[in-house]
Design a protein that fits this description.
Elements: H1 9-12, H2 14-42, H3 56-91
Helix pairs in contact: 2-3
């Protein structure tokens, strides 16, 4: 049947997908901000006379960016997996004992 080839309804639904992306974005922003605060407090200030390949501020910014990006991707993957599992359980009939 043609209906069997369609993707699950929640994964197709634009409102559900947008909600998952916004939630993942908020999680990514929160974890990135937390990574920035932690890296900023743990790394000591460097003297102005030293010349390094990467300054302290650049490293702290990279830590915040990478932690936010990784958490965003993980949140999207987990939420899509949960939505897929939910849609599969909704499509299967429940067993009843008579």
């Amino acid at each position: 049947m043609i209906i069997d080839n369609l993707p699950p309804p929640d994964l197709r639904d634009r409102a559900g997908r947008a909600r998952r992306l916004v939630l993942a974005l908020l999680i990514g922003i929160g974890v990135g901000s937390l990574g920035y605060v932690i890296a900023n407090t743990l790394i000591a200030a460097e003297p102005a006379s030293l010349h390094h390949r990467m300054s302290r501020d650049t490293f702290v910014s990279w830590v915040a960016l990478v932690s936010g990006l990784v958490s965003f991707v993980c949140a999207v993957v987990v939420q899509n997996g949960l939505a897929k599992r939910r849609s599969q359980t909704e499509r299967l009939p429940r067993a009843r004992i008579h």
